[in-house]
């Protein structure tokens, strides 16, 4: 099956095909299926006959190679072996990545939880401890098949894709191009200032939605975007509010983090560059997936005049923030 056929099958993945795939692993499904909140992949809660429910994750074709997926699985299994509360895939006789027809999928234990309270100093410190332990493990060796977070991929390729595929309205496209180039020049300058900072294996998309909090603490889920990068990439999305509040939250996170792993304070200069790259990458991610019917249903506000005007405004705000003094941390 070629790439186009595999992508079409993925878009048309229905409950019958999904249940057949899960049962190909030797499990018996009851037929009860609940679609979970995921767009890049297809993720379902599956009820099993005589066993606890599982979560089935069907991978989008052509996004990751099998080697890259297995590398992610291996990382989470490493972390789980250290009793870090991540959720690794279930292994059937050592196999974590399954194939059924055009589909590649993995099965996970079902874990519940609520969003973390980012105003709770104790939760932030506990989360910092676990992130420090993740990074201590992640620093032991590099990914071989997963990329490094870069300006070229998240920034240059993103804005070029939007322009090359005519997503911007004509009256906004030229201004957007100039703004994107100026902003990325500033991002490059900031990142060059700490170019010798260490990179390590990261969660990669560590935001509050990927933390499930319970009475016993957090589960850290969804390592699908795991990659190499600076440690601060897994920290900055937990910093909210104005700069004094961000500094307070940072201190609480790092009070736990630094019990297990050193933090290079120079990386604080990367927070606004990384935020800028995330904004640009997110817009291009939606554009690249715009032929997927699931995206058009979930993001009806995308690719409208108002969306692009607000996107440009966000980049102008980031241009100003890139010129401000970085956040400081006094251990």
Short description:
With 331 residues, this protein is of the alpha+beta class. It contains ten helices and nine strands.
Mean of residue pLDDT values: 95
Question: What's the CATH topology label of the largest domain?
Answer: Transferase(Phosphotransferase), domain 1
Q: Evaluate the radius of gyration.
A: 21 Å
The profile of the biggest β sheet is: 5 strands, antiparallel
Second-tier CATH architecture of the largest domain? Orthogonal Bundle
Q: Low-confidence parts, pLDDT < 50 over ≥5 residues?
A: none
Helix/strand class = alpha+beta
- Written as H for each helix and E for each strand, in order along the chain, the element string is HHEEEHEEHHHEEEEHHHH
Q: How many helical stretches?
A: 10
| Helical coverage, percent range | 40-55%
Strand order of the largest sheet: 1-2-3-5-4
Q: How many structural domains can be distinguished in the coordinates?
A: 2
SSE layout and pairing:
Blueprint: H1 3-11, H2 15-23, E1 29-35, E2 42-48, E3 51-58, H3 66-81, E4 98-100, E5 103-109, H4 121-138, H5 151-164, H6 170-193, E6 200-202, E7 211-214, E8 217-220, E9 227-229, H7 243-257, H8 271-288, H9 293-298, H10 305-321
Antiparallel strand pairs: 1-2, 2-3, 3-5, 4-5, 6-9, 7-8
């Amino acid at each position: 099956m070629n790439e186009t056929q595999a992508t079409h099958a993925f878009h048309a993945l229905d409950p019958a095909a999904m249940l057949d795939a899960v049962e190909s692993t030797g499990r018996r499904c009851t037929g009860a299926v609940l679609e979970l909140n995921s767009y890049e992949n297809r993720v379902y809660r599956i009820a099993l006959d005589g066993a606890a429910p599982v979560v089935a994750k069907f991978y989008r074709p052509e996004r990751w190679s099998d080697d890259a997926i297995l590398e992610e699985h291996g990382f989470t299994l490493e972390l789980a072996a250290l009793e870090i509360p991540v959720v690794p895939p279930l292994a059937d006789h050592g196999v974590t990545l399954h194939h059924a027809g055009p589909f590649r999928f993995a099965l996970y234990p079902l874990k519940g939880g609520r969003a973390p309270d980012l105003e709770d100093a104790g939760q932030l410190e506990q989360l910092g401890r676990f992130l420090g332990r993740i990074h201590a493990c992640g620093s032991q060796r590099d990914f071989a098949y997963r990329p490094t977070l870069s300006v070229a991929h998240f920034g240059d390729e993103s804005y070029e894709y939007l322009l090359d595929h005519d997503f911007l309205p004509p009256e906004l496209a030229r201004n957007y191009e100039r703004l994107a180039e100026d902003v990325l020049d500033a991002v490059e300058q900031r990142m060059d200032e700490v170019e010798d900072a260490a990179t390590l294996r990261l969660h990669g998309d560590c935001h509050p939605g990927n933390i499930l909090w319970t009475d016993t603490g957090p589960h850290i889920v969804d390592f699908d975007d795991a990659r190499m990068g600076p440690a601060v990439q897994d920290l900055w999305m937990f910093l909210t509010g104005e700069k004094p509040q961000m500094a307070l939250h940072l201190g609480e996170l790092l009070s736990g983090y630094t019990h297990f792993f050193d933090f290079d304070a120079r990386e604080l200069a990367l927070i606004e560059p990384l935020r800028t790259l995330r904004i640009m990458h997110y817009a291009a991610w939606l554009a690249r997936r715009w032929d997927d019917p699931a995206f058009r249903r979930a993001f009806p506000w995308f690719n409208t005049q108002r969306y692009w005007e607000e996107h440009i405004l966000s980049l102008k705000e980031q241009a100003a923030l890139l010129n401000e003094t970085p956040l400081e941390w006094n251990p």
